[in-house]
Structure formats: C-alpha cells, structure tokens
C-alpha cells in the first residue's frame, strides 16, 4: 500500500512539474490539489442561469488549473506588459507570479507583510495591501523599491488593508476591515486603532480620506465601467453578505444613494469581484461558514453542519448590472477573488484557496 501511494504521489508531482506547477517548492506542495479538466465541450462547469449569459460562454473553452500548492490564494492582478499574473498566498506571506508564456508559477516576493489585495496602477506599477504587521498600502516602483501610500488615518494605524482598485483619475480606493489582525492565520493578532472599518480614497495628491464609514468589514470593491457607480462587498451584511452600490458624484469623490445590489441569500461567501465592460459583476463565491441551528447525526456524533454545502457553492457567480444572477462557474475550491487578463483581456483568473484557475470567456475586464 505504501509503495502504491508513493508511486501515485511521484506520478502526481511529475505531472505538476510538467505543467510548471511544482515550482512553488517547500512545504507548500502539501496543499497541491489534483485537478482534471472536463473533457466535454461546452464545459459543464459553466452553468448558465439566464439565457443572456450564453454570449459570454466560449463553447470550446474549459476551466484550467494554472497554479496550485498554496495555502490561501488572493488578490490577483494582471500585468499585460509582461504577460503575467501576480497574486497573494497570504498565510505563506508571499506574492506569487504566474507567467503565461512559460506556464510556470514562482515566488515573486517573500516577507510581504501578509499582503492581500493587489492591483496595477495606470503607470503599470504594483499596488499592494499589506494585510498585517505594517498594515499599509504600498506601491512597487519600477526600480523595485517600495513607496508607502497610506499607513494611518487621523494619527491612528489602519486596520488591515484588504482590496484595492484604481480609478481613471489615478485615485486609489481600498477597503480596511479587520481580518488581518483578528487572528494568527493571515498575519498577527493586534489591537485595532480605527473606530470604524472604512473604505478609503487616496487622491492623486496623496491625501487620504474615508469615503465610506458605515460598513462592517468592507471587502471587495470595484467601479462600473463608466465609473458612475462604486460597488463594495460588506462581509457582515444584514442578514447576509452583500454588495452595496453607490452613485459617484460629478466630483469623482462623493458617494450617495447607497443601495443593496446583491444579497448572498444562499449562504454564499461574497469576497472579491471584478466588473466586465458590459457592467456584469463576476464574484468569488463559496460557503460563508454559517452553521445550522441544530446538530444532525453523523457517524454517531451530533455535528453542526454548514447551512450551505461547499460543493454546491464553490466557484464564481456572475450578476448583471441590475443584480440578476446570470451564471455560475463551478470550481473544486472556494473562489476568493478574480482578475481579467490574457493578451485580449478575456481570460478570467480565479484565485481559489489552494489554487488558481483560469477560463477564457467572451467578456473583457472593464479596466
């Protein structure tokens, strides 16, 4: 039995090496997830919930696994100049790099203060939300040096910068929940200093302002293609996780008309998301971890089961600009965040727990 197990593992690692997935190295390979793409076209993992989504599905495209061996993949950002994707592996405290040309995944940078969200600014520089320890937003300059863009507000340290987006006027918007200082998994437990969990804006002049102050642990955020609306995930919505929509004022700063656009009523764990050129929202999805009120029998034990089964929820939900469900992309792992990339900006990268998956679609990222 041991010899069979060893042979199977050697075969799996050999397969990973052939695809470039074994380049992560070290103990992280313990989290490598075997994956077999669907053999049939169209891919049954792409489930159409509304006929209007059919134009976005490519008949002969299927979900692919492009990286594995991670502990918690997050914050993907695509860089068209180099044809690569950067993303965070938060518990391993590193930023990873997937190279489209070679198909390999390597460590881009270690000891990144548990970076969560990443983004590319309009000058092609990397913006990162250091989620713990330093608790700041930084920019990687062309020479590789880091510039600190924000680390405190009104004289008090930020909570745990999470997700980040850049507007066409070069302003930078980011969320500041508590996840990076709530425990020891995504950083180090620390005392909060901010009274609220805000959404912040860094102006082109470097001035930091709190633009939303009444959300409980805001998470993912994105603008509509015309930037007239800002969408923000609230982790602790009422009663479920939600995406709120705000009208952006003519000044490009002020927000009004707070409206609930999406309610994850099926126990979905809304996290990060991206918007395509048609205004559709492509949302990371999975179980929110809520438990049933009463235990059930499982092998003679009374167990509190999840309200929503992970195997039914893990993947990506796509919604129209009006919040109507259009499609579900089923994945073997919960998807935390996404990015559009590829030479034509039509390859959807999905950062999902231990792996990153990709799917070509007939949609293009708005930015």
From TrEMBL:
SUPFAM superfamilies cross-referenced by the UniProt entry: Calcium-dependent phosphotriesterase
Keywords (A to Z) from UniProt = Hydrolase, Metal-binding, Zinc
Example of a GO MF term: hydrolase activity
Record keyword Repeat present:
no
Q: Where is the SMP-30/Gluconolactonase/LRE-like region domain?
A: 72-353
Q: Which residues bind substrate?
A: 162, 186
List residues binding a divalent metal cation: 74, 219, 271
Q: Which PANTHER family match?
A: LACTONASE DRP35 (PTHR47572:SF4), LIPOPROTEIN-RELATED (PTHR47572)
Protein name as catalogued: SMP-30/gluconolactonase/LRE family protein
Organism this protein belongs to? Azohydromonas caseinilytica
């Amino acid at each position: 039995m041991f010899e069979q197990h060893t042979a199977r593992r050697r075969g799996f690692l050999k397969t990973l090496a052939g695809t470039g997935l074994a380049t992560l190295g070290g103990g992280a390979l313990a989290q490598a997830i075997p994956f077999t793409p669907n053999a049939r076209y169209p891919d049954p993992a792409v489930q159409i919930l509304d006929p209007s989504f059919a134009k976005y599905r490519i008949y002969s495209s299927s979900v692919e696994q492009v990286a594995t061996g991670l502990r918690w993949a997050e914050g993907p950002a695509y860089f068209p100049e180099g044809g690569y994707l950067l993303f965070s592996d938060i518990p391993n405290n590193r930023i990873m790099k997937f190279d489209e040309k070679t198909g390999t995944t390597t460590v881009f940078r270690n000891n990144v203060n548990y970076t969560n969200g990443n983004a590319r600014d309009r000058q092609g520089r990397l913006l990162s939300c250091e989620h713990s320890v330093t608790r700041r937003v930084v920019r990687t300059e062309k020479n590789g040096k880091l510039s600190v863009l924000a680390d405190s507000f009104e004289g008090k340290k930020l909570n745990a910068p999470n997700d980040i987006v850049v507007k066409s006027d070069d302003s930078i918007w980011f969320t500041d929940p508590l996840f990076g200082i709530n425990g020891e998994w995504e950083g180090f437990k620390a005392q909060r200093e901010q009274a609220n969990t805000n959404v912040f804006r860094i102006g082109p002049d470097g001035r930091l302002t709190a633009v939303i102050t009444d959300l409980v642990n805001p998470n993912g955020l994105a603008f509509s293609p015309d930037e007239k609306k800002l969408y923000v995930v609230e982790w602790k919505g009422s009663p479920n996780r939600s995406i709120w929509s705000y009208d952006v004022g003519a000044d490009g700063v002020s927000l009004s008309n707070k409206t609930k656009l999406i309610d994850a009523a099926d126990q979905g764990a809304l996290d990060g998301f991206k918007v395509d050129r048609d205004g559709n929202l492509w949302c990371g999805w999975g179980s929110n971890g809520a438990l049933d009120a009463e235990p059930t029998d499982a092998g003679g034990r009374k167990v509190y089961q999840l309200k929503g089964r992970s195997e039914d929820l893990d993947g990506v939900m796509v919604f129209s600009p009006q919040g109507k469900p259009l499609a579900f992309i089923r994945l073997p792992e919960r998807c935390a965040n996404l990015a559009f990339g590829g030479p034509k900006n039509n390859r959807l990268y999905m950062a999902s727990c231990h792996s990153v998956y990709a799917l070509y679609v007939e949609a293009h990222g708005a930015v």
